[in-house]
Amino acid sequence: MDRCSLVRTLVNRYCAGEEDWVDSRTVYVGHREPPPGAEAYIPQRYPDNRIVSAKYTFWNFIPKNLFEQFRRIANFYFLIIFLVQLIIDTPTSPVTSGLPLFFVITVTAIKQGYEDWLRHKADNAMNQCPVHFVQHGRLVRKQSRKLRVGDIVMVKEDETFPCDLIFLSSSRADGTCHVTTASLDGESSHKTHYAVQDTKGFHSEEDIDSLHATIECEQPQPDLYKFVGRINVYNDQNDPVVRSLGSENLLLRGATLKNTEKIFGVAIYTGMETKMALNYQSKSQKRSAVEKSMNVFLVVYLCILISKALINTTLKYVWQSEPSRDEPWYNRKTEAERQRNLFLRAFTDFLAFMVLFNYIIPVSMYVTVELQKFLGSYFLTWDEDMFDEEMGEGPLVNTSDLNEELGQVEYVFTDKTGTLTENNMEFKECCVEGHVCVPHAVCNGQVLPDASAIDMIDASPGASGREREELFFRALCLCHTIQVKDDDEVDGPQKSPDSGKRSAYISSSPDEVALVEGIQRFGFTYLRLKDNYMELLNRDNDIERFELLEILSFDSVRRRMSVIVKSATGEIYLFCKGADSSIFPRVTEGKVDQIQSRVERNAVEGLRTLCVAYKTLIPEEYEGIRELLQDAKVALQDRDKKLAEAYEQIETDLVLLGATAVEDRLQEKAADTIEALQKAGIKVWVLTGDKMETAAATCYACKLFRRNTQLLEVTTKRLEEQSLHDVLFELSKTVLRSSASLTRDNFSGLSADMQDYGLIIDGAALSLIMKPREDGSSSNYRELFLDICRNCSAVLCCRMAPLQKAQIVKLIKLSKEHPITLAIGDGANDVSMILEAHVGIGVIGKEGRQAARNSDYAIPKFKHLKKMLLVHGHFYYIRISELVQYFFYKNVCFIFPQFLYQFFCGFSQQTLYDTAYLTLYNISFTSLPILLYSLMEQHVAMDTLKRDPALYRDIAKNALLRWRAFIYWTLLGLFNALVFFFGAYFMFENTTVTSNGQVFGNWTFGTLVFTVMVLTVTLKLALDTHYWTWVNHFVIWGSLLFYIVFSLLWGGVIWPFLSYQRMYYVFIQMLSSGPAWLAIVLLVTVSLLPDVLKKVLCRQLWPSATERVQTSRFVSGLPLGSHPLATL
């Protein structure tokens, strides 16, 4: 028996040409062993059905989370500083760096732990949901996680499939079921799946439990649309019946059963091997330009820190080179200290100085930035102007890490269908044999006499023309994958041509529904698919039945689909429907010129066009086709390739019947949004799969192209006449000649003084540009292409595959200017470019939510992009750039006096400030004002930003975080630190400032410097605030009051938990001195004066557009900002 089994296996595989096909699995349906004589039974182990999306477990959370957090350079740096403080004798307590670090780590761990707890909760809900198993001829209810490969499962209507199943049988007589896959690929429309031919009659648990079959299929792989397998059904010990299995037989986990009472299926992929789980992809971590600048500034300050420590260490040993200074009488060294190695002592001192000055690196800045981004994102979701009443949806924030990037966008890449347009198809006209039929002016297929607006390319049809016309309408009724809802099915004779409800039809393509509904007006109504027969109602109200023999499915490469049907009279037809570019080359008869002329005219008007053709098959021809298709379908190796070759052979020698035109209307305010973006200096590119003429018409309608725009083409049609090299160089000369005569900024967008260029490129031409040349110099064409694009105000890329969309975005993103890119789309085919761009935005549209789920942000309509970028993006960037610069500034003010103090204390690492002040400066005294500023600041009113998009240019290219601005803030901090330290030093040097004749000690001196510093940095922020609310007042003045109250309590009370109190009575003594009050007022005024003068002079002499707006509003008495919550 084993030898026979081996022979059968070899014959099956080698005769089928599968000698290379080894990456497979065998599934035993219902865990039933194959009958004797079949293949040997080899039990295999597969994972259970548990889904695990959580990152941590209870046991590994702490070590794993700590490891991830300390991978951040700032956290790791502070950990090292903390350890140094613990190991060696340092001037400051380990608490001063350990407490802020602990606070940062704890807050981040709580946030990440909470997010992971939510993931665990979702996983448990999914893994514990009930599933109906078939065991021993009856239904058993178990938890989903207990499902195993080979189990037979029953799924009811509106339930989601618990794992990947092979569809065995259905409650529907025709063995079909309807499925929605919105949670997988974003497509919300219904798809039809088909049960295995030999098992679709098993409708009860007993029947399905008696099934004896094995399934051979490929190992798990993530492609949702590809599946290759075969099922061997054993009947009465005979040789098994072998049937091919494809994606139409596979029901995916996460999809939902619709319009079908129940189905039975066998589990083939479970748990983390399901296609849904394999498509879990952690999005690549996107980092904003602000974060990158922040990290660069951090490195600069780290270098400054190391330099300070080196300088102080060197000067210490230079100063101590004199014996009297090395061992003063009050601090004699021990014998052990004298014998220590010099280099070891120097290194220890270097580390001590590093610890002393480490506060120049602001660890709390990271927490403040994260809080600002997280809380700031709520202003976007709360915006009532961006809420769509019709959909009941508002904007979604999937990641708050890129808020400020919305204010830095230079390129917008947008999809067309469903993004710029509504994806709401309306049938406009059809052209049959050169005769144009418009539904509103047509009755029973004849043009009405008063329809003067109807364009007649050819004369009205004669008798043979009428036959062709009816054949055209039958082709549209039959060549589709539409299903009719059971609830809306109506008995044939009672259903009039206009009685069909829009909701009756279910299809994965809105175009198909529009066509089938449109031809109802011409007297032909599609009724149903029943028992493999398609039924339609003709003009005479008679039902016609066609047997559905084969479906040649649509795919994006062929861009067409076909059906083979058999009429009641025995005639066999192949009807083919597809894009003009894929139909015309296969046509041998028909009025091609007239129809092609009409198709081109409709495309120019922005209509979506399809062509319809047919051919008649004799029975012998069909038998050959059937065998050809069957061989391709059963193949396990290269099945898609073999099917494509078979389709190519079959869809030839067609007779052209006509063409259709469907309109996809432009979205509300799409043109206004694009115009505003261009005025803001943002270049808009449209990337679409549509034909060039249709897409160009849409671009004119939405004002991407204007009437004076000179269009430049790099298309397949042009490349047939000229080489790519010649085309690119010719276009380059054209645009560069124009740019040479008029100076143009690459980023400046539209200009009224110069020729406006628009570029059109198609997918085939792009492939040639991206393809490496034979000499390996592929970059030449790319650079030339980019030079042309830079000088064009708008670019249209048509006939684009999803991957090509991502390639375009990547090409621009990695160009030498490194511009910030934004991609926006609504369908699953836009996900690749959304993930590739710096900022990805999904439109919550009719093509499902795949784009919205994979995006960084989601909005209901394209028009909301205007406010998102020009208002929210502008505010986000202004706020966080001030936050970053201010944090570095206040830390320079904080630590530079400590550096200066070392020159007056013999480089002994003595601290200028008390430990409490060191610890709380960044955590308490100065943290809340800048956080509130970064959440609520409005330097210009919202309505002004919307009305004047050009203000967006003031912050372009990271303007507020450039080196010039960074150096200004740093120098301002250094100046303030010099004023704090030397002002206090010279004012109180050898001076009696108290009533009893005492002089200030070092702690009083340090407290005075610290008090001046806290007042100065807080008032500096108050001067920068343009928009005041009671919250700002409360936080700014409240933080100053908190500092004073804390200092009074810290130095005015004897705290039992402290072993010593060096600050006892210090603050109170300082405030009791009149000269100290004078010094505080004077030093704060002197510190703030340069910044005030700089602001006044710059506004008068070199005002920016934003400052001019601020001045005009101030002069007119209007507030600079509006309440952030009142406008949302």
UniProtKB/TrEMBL annotation:
It catalyses: ATP + H2O + phospholipidSide 1 = ADP + phosphate + phospholipidSide 2. Its EC number is 7.6.2.1. Belongs to the cation transport ATPase (P-type) (TC 3.A.3) family. Type IV subfamily. GO terms for molecular function: ATP binding; ATP hydrolysis activity; ATPase-coupled intramembrane lipid transporter activity; magnesium ion binding; phosphatidylserine floppase activity. Keywords: ATP-binding, Magnesium, Membrane, Metal-binding, Nucleotide-binding, Translocase, Transmembrane, Transmembrane helix. The keyword Nucleotidyltransferase does not apply. Residues 128-192 form the P-type ATPase A domain. Residues 852-1104 form the P-type ATPase C-terminal domain. The active site is at D415. The chain crosses the membrane at residues 70-88, 296-319, 350-369, 916-936, 966-988, 1000-1022, 1034-1058, 1064-1089. Its main location: membrane. This is Phospholipid-transporting ATPase.
